[in-house]
Specification:
Three copies of one chain form a homotrimer.
Chain A: H1 14-29, E1 42-47, H2 52-64, E2 68-72, H3 86-96, E3 99-104, H4 109-114, E4 121-126, H5 132-146, E5 153-157, H6 164-173, E6 180-184, H7 193-201, E7 205-209, H8 212-215, E8 221-224, H9 235-241, H10 249-252, E9 260-262, H11 283-302, E10 338-341, E11 344-347
Parallel strand pairs in A: 1-2, 1-3, 3-4, 5-6, 5-8, 6-7, 8-9
Antiparallel strand pairs in A: 10-11
Chain lengths: 359, 359, 359
């Protein structure tokens, strides 16, 4: 990888993403070949919010490579909660570890951490912003279980407006040729316009479907996500529509036999339990591909062994990001980094448009 | 072992139990001989209720074999609490691990987990139901510190009505020849009738004693448990009896020199601290035998390397278990499994009689 | 080491301290040479209060030596909270581990633990009493980053009255030749008199300064600590003085180029963030020396392989310690151990003068 850290999957060159996916496939075939590759290396998990699933997946990946673990997953129960800055925590823990895996409710926290770390930083989720290893997991699952990332008809069923993993998957698949997306949700929960633009710009196409039943026969891939009850327009709407977006065995009858059903998990009830034993249910295997993808990623970032603290970048503008969920709203020493776009200044941490440009 | 999982010690064939106990004895003599036997293996601890003692004992056992650890011990601090089913958690984590150790406040949770796991499951306590590795610990202690499991006079002092570990020990020792049990408790806290039946059916015998003092001279083994204050019939009764069931140095005066005092720990004050230095106090050594017993057990279950998800069994009856503490009361997708007995249908998960048979 | 345990740095012979510091320096140069030296060994962390920083430092040190980890850091979430005595916990966990690292809010807890442990005990902080590995970290930092422990002019800026790490550092440096201490604090927060006596008794000298600015030009070492707001004599005093004891880039202008700035961390705002990139800022490197110092210490204590439980010492007096923060106030079975001094009986656990001598 040309970057030391994995903050955003979009920063990887296509050849680098390809390399990690191919490597993941090799590992999936013979995981035991790689079991000494992180020996004597320490991975620190800095989980500022609990996420047992993601944390255990990283931990298992590191252990499968022969590595070791330190970390915390409950900042209330730690000196981290005693007002210490993210910078200080990262400066100290990167003295102990060879790779940091960070999860935070604050958008841009992983990028902020990478500015002060002596070792590579992997973003394990920064608020509603990015979760690149989930997307890597999804891609590795398609690559291995479907066999390709292009010329796919991909159904996106559930909350396409707020689903971070859906957005990231759409963005990445739009870079491959000939994909067609079928969005299956209420109009209120449709994909944001900027993503529709990305789809068409990349040469992919999309359509909308009002029910899962109507969409399912054409699909190669069905990516399910949960719609939270409070995201429906009204209680009436919820009662009327709640079953329309639930996958069950009956709806699967008209699906292709080669369909692959993915879900980022945890699920609640958007996939009925009776689907689990259908050979098209791929969501549990998906977590196994996630393990191998993280093993591949860890090996790649551990190739960076320079332990110098990066030189902190200078402010690019005097503006302050106005997004309250941005890491800069809590960590005031962070350099002010913005990109100039047609719409105005965009914060480099959270990628939101700043509302007080140039002040 | 003929079963992949260890849910209930009673499922082991006598020869299998014998094998594990003998293996435990070998390990106790040279623990370092076994230190690479779980290399590259991962044990996941799924502790739905905290139990530091049990968890650390399993963890130390796995580490002493060269294995690695993942897990959680605080479900409130995890995605597990976000409404995910036990099934999904087990399906996912068994993708990461080679053996699952599960603890739950729900009766039958370990059996339920084993239906969906790709790797062996060990029951580390399922509510008030079973705790087989505690019993294995007790047996290993007798086998090593006393030298036999038969022809023993075993005092059971404390809460014999509610003590899960006492019940399990009595059940297992009743299968060996010539044991005699002396129950030392209030009448209200006597052993349940079905266990008295098991004792006599197996050819063992029992007697009752009202005080520890009266019983102690005849004992080869004294198994102490705590009586919770609220378990006495009244406050008066508690005040009158509380010291009768406390072991101290004075009461030990008339005991055999070969007596072995066991306790599942933690103790509160039912054994006075001045007993700790008596050579007959075996309860701390017991925890060390527990370590070796778990090392033996882990090695045996890790011999099962088939990673297929078991085929879920079909419902045996239409009944629902009516026990609120049964895992089926929370996890509704579980197959309904019952045994028919003279008294009615008995739930296979919690082993309680179901109250709405056949509905 | 002539003692098995590290409870108080003052118990080490000068040659032993010297050995550990020299060993630390070797490790700092080639940490990878030592990476198998604790293979197959288990370190248990018994953290009765959370201290993520200290715990992770010990964990990383043990892992860097190839060792393994068990432990807890949240007693509320453990059977430890269910009324189990420290003695029982230590007796059990020392059956599982090769070294115990204990942290407790109770003064003397590590000494108490060492009386019942089958393996070496390291004090990772016992209330406001001792924190020997922090002092070891400080000394290793001076030894490596400054190059000597004698003939130094050491500024102590912050809360010199309550700072446990400051006291311990002063005590130890007073044993080396020709050190000069400059105390930079409010009069209310000056070093306690008994420490001033230790300084002069050892042949070192001291002076007071009212501001950081005034003191800084002469310093070889500046040891910064935080003053909590409520430690100032009044709110007015706080407002008047709060900036006087804050180190920033401006105040650094008149400092020597060879100055080394230390801080036990975490900091709040007593060192401005703009100091971090100054080459004299040594507080992050200090945490790395702390890692190497703990690696050295762990190797030394792991040389003790006798696993016998120590013979508990007998009461030296009938007195009870009257310090409510002393471990003996909670753990009543502990032997009553006192030293006779001119001022009266001093408790061996918490080193406080007992108020009811001889009762």
């Amino acid at each position: 990888m040309h970057t030391r850290d994995l903050i955003d999957l979009a920063e990887l060159k296509p050849s680098e993403l390809q390399d990690i996916l191919r490597f993941t496939g090799f590992i999936a075939q013979n995981p035991q070949y790689y079991r000494g590759n992180a020996e004597h290396k320490i991975m620190a998990t800095l989980f500022y919010e609990p996420s047992t699933r993601t944390q255990m997946s990283f931990q298992a990946a590191m252990l499968r490579l022969g590595g070791r673990l330190i970390g915390f997953d409950d900042p209330d129960n730690s000196s981290v909660a005693k007002g210490e800055s993210l910078k200080d925590t990262v400066r100290v823990i990167s003295n102990y570890a060879d790779v940091l895996v960070i999860r935070s409710p604050l958008e841009g926290a992983a990028l902020a951490a990478s500015l002060y770390s002596r070792c590579p930083v992997i973003n394990a989720g920064d608020g509603g912003h990015l979760h690149p290893t989930q997307t890597l997991t999804d891609l590795a699952t398609l690559d291995n279980a479907v066999g390709r990332l292009d010329h796919l008809t991909v159904g996106l069923c559930g909350d396409n407006l707020n689903g971070r993993t859906v957005h990231s998957l759409v963005k990445t698949l739009s870079r491959y040729a000939g994909n067609h997306f079928v969005m299956i949700s209420t109009p209120e929960l449709a994909l944001p316009g900027y993503l529709l633009d990305e789809i068409t710009r990349g040469g992919s196409t999309y359509a909308r479907a009002e029910t899962l039943e109507e969409a399912i026969p054409a699909l190669d891939v069905l990516y399910m996500t949960r719609i939270q009850k409070e995201r429906f327009a009204s209680v009436d709407e919820y009662e009327r529509l709640k079953d329309v977006f639930v996958l069950d065995r009956a709806k699967l009858k008209h699906a292709k036999s080669a369909l692959r059903i993915l879900h980022p998990l945890p699920r609640v009830n958007e996939i009925a339990v009776d689907v689990d034993d259908d050979p098209r249910a791929t969501y549990f295997a998906q977590t196994e591909y996630g393990l191998y993808a993280r093993m591949a990623l860890l090996q790649r970032v551990l190739e960076h062994t320079d332990r110098a603290v990066p030189t902190a970048p200078a402010d690019t503008h005097k503006a302050r990001c106005t997004n309250e969920r941005c890491v800069t709203s809590k960590e005031h020493y962070l350099p002010r980094l913005f990109k100039e776009t047609d719409a105005g200044l965009v914060c480099r941490y959270c990628e939101q448009l700043s509302m007080n440009n140039g002040q």
